[in-house]
C-alpha cells in the first residue's frame, strides 16, 4: 500500500480538523466515515487526530481501506482540498511529551566538547572528546536512556515562526524523529514495543543552551524547564505518518538546513537507544497514553557544535525520510500567546 498521512488543518481560520493527506490533497477524516461504513469498517472519533489515536488499530484499518478504495477509483466525488490552501497545524497535541537526551553518539560527543559541564571543568577539548567517546561506548553496552519531559505548551506548527525570547542568546536547534503512541502502554517489552507506535513525526527540540546548567546550584544538574519549554520551542509536523509505512525507524535520514545550508544530516541508526528501547524504558516508569509524543534525540550538527545560534530572520528547514518537511522562520518574541499554533506558512 502506498503511504498516506494524517494531519490537523484549518480552512480560512476555521476550526481545526483531522485530515487524511493523499498526494498533496486533504480530506477531512470525518468525511471518510460513510465510505468506511460502506466498506464494512467503523471509523471512531474522526474529528480530531487524538480521537483517532484513542482507537488507533481499528481506525487505521478503516482509513487504510478507505484510502485504498479511493486510489482504486471505487469512491469519487469526495470533498478533497489542496493542502496548499489550508493552514497546517501541529498534527497532534499530546498530553505528555518525553524527550530522550544524549541519544546520538556523534551528537553527544560534540556537546561534551563544546558545552562541557561542572564535571568536565579543567579538561581540554581533546580530553573531553576522549572522555565522551569512552562514556558513550559504555552507555551503549550497559547504560540506560536519559529521559526528561517537555511541556505541551512549547508546541507550534510546522510552518509557524519560532519565537526567540530576547534574553536568550544561545537558542539552538535539534531536529529529531518523533514517535507518537497509539495504544496505552505500561511495562512494554522491547520485543513488542513498536506495536504500540501509531506513527512518526518531525520535531525540532529547540534548546536555550546557556540555561541548561544552573551555576547557582551545580549539584542539581540540568534545568530542562527553563532551557527547553518556552512557547514555540517544539515545532511538530507537518504530518503524522502511520507506522505501517515506516518499516524501520532506525533507518531514516534526518536533515536540517539553516538558511539553506545543511547543518544536520545523519541516520537514526546512530541512536544509542533505539525507538523500541525507549518505549520499553519509559513505559517501565510511567503510563503512556495514545497521542503521547517521544522525541528520540538529536543527531550531530547542532548550533553548539558550530558556535552558531539562532537569530532573528533565520529559517530552519527540517526533513526526515517519508515524514515531510517543516519550515520555521525565527523572530524575536513579540506575538501574543493566541498567535501560536495558527499554522502560518513562512
Q: Can you walk me through this structure?
A:
The chain has 346 residues and is of the alpha+beta class. Helices cover 21% and strands 26% of the residues. It contains eight helices and 20 strands. A six-stranded mixed beta sheet has the order 7-6-18-11-12-15. A five-stranded antiparallel beta sheet has the order 4-3-2-1-5, with no helix packed on it. Helix 4 packs antiparallel against helix 5 (125-142). It is globular and about 70 Å long. The mean pLDDT is 93.
Q: Provide the gyration radius in Å.
A: 20 Å
- Cα(first) to Cα(last) distance is 33 Å
How many separate helices?
8
Q: In what range is the share of β-strand residues? A: 25-35%
Average pLDDT confidence is: 93
Please state how the strands of the largest beta sheet are arranged side by side: 7-6-18-11-12-15
A few lines on this structure:
With 346 residues, this protein is of the alpha+beta class. It has helices at residues 33-38, 49-54, 56-71, 105-114, 125-142, 224-228, 275-283, 303-306; strands at residues 5-10, 17-22, 25-28, 81-82, 87-89, 97-101, 146-149, 155-156, 162-164, 171-172, 175-181, 197-204, 207-208, 234-235, 241-242, 253-258, 261-267, 293-295, 315-320, 324-332.
What is the topological layout?
Layout: E1 5-10, E2 17-22, E3 25-28, H1 33-38, H2 49-54, H3 56-71, E4 81-82, E5 87-89, E6 97-101, H4 105-114, H5 125-142, E7 146-149, E8 155-156, E9 162-164, E10 171-172, E11 175-181, E12 197-204, E13 207-208, H6 224-228, E14 234-235, E15 241-242, E16 253-258, E17 261-267, H7 275-283, E18 293-295, H8 303-306, E19 315-320, E20 324-332
Amino acid at each position: 500500500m502506498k503511504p498516506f498521512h494524517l494531519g490537523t488543518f484549518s480552512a480560512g481560520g476555521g476550526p481545526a480538523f483531522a485530515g487524511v493527506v493523499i498526494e498533496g490533497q486533504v480530506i477531512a477524516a470525518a468525511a471518510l466515515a460513510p465510505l468506511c461504513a460502506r466498506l464494512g469498517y467503523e471509523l471512531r472519533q474522526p474529528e480530531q487526530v487524538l480521537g483517532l489515536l484513542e482507537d488507533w488499530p481499528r481506525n487505521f484499518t478503516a482509513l487504510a481501506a478507505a484510502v485504498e478504495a479511493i486510489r482504486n477509483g471505487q469512491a469519487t466525488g469526495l470533498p478533497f482540498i489542496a493542502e496548499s490552501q489550508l493552514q497546517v497545524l501541529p498534527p497532534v497535541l499530546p498530553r505528555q511529551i518525553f524527550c530522550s537526551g544524549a541519544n546520538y553518539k556523534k551528537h553527544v560527543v560534540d556537546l561534551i566538547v563544546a558545552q562541557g559541564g561542572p564535571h568536565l571543568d579543567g579538561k581540554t577539548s581533546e580530553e573531553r572528546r576522549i572522555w565522551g567517546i569512552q562514556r558513550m561506548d559504555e552507555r551503549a553496552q550497559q547504560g540506560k536512556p536519559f529521559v526528561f519531559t517537555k511541556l505541551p505548551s512549547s508546541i507550534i506548527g510546522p510552518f509557524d515562526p519560532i519565537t526567540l525570547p530576547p534574553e536568550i542568546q544561545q537558542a539552538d536547534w535539534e531536529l529529531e524523529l518523533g514517535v507518537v503512541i497509539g495504544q496505552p502502554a505500561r511495562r512494554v517489552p522491547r520485543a513488542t514495543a513498536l506495536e504500540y507506535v501509531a506513527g512518526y513525526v518531525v520535531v525540532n527540540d529547540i534548546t536555550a543552551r546557556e540555561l541548561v546548567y544552573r551555576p547557582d546550584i551545580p549539584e542539581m544538574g540540568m534545568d530542562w524547564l527553563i532551557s527547553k519549554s518556552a512557547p514555540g520551542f517544539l515545532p511538530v509536523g507537518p504530518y503524522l505518518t502511520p507506522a505501517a509505512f515506516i518499516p524501520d525507524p532506525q533507518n531514516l535520514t534526518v536533515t536540517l538546513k539553516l538558511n539553506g545550508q545543511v547543518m544536520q544530516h545523519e541516520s537514526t541508526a546512530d541512536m544509542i537507544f533505539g525507538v523500541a528501547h525507549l518505549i520499553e524504558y519509559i513505559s517501565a516508569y510511567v503510563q503512556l497514553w495514545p497521542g503521547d509524543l517521544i522525541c528520540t534525540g538529536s543527531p550531530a550538527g547542532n548550533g553548539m557544535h558550530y558556535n552558531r545560534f539562532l537569530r532573528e530572520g533565520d529559517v530552519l528547514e527540517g526533513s526526515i525520510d517519508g515524514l515531510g518537511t517543516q519550515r520555521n522562520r525565527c523572530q524575536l518574541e513579540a506575538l501574543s500567546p493566541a498567535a501560536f499554533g495558527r499554522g502560518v506558512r513562512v
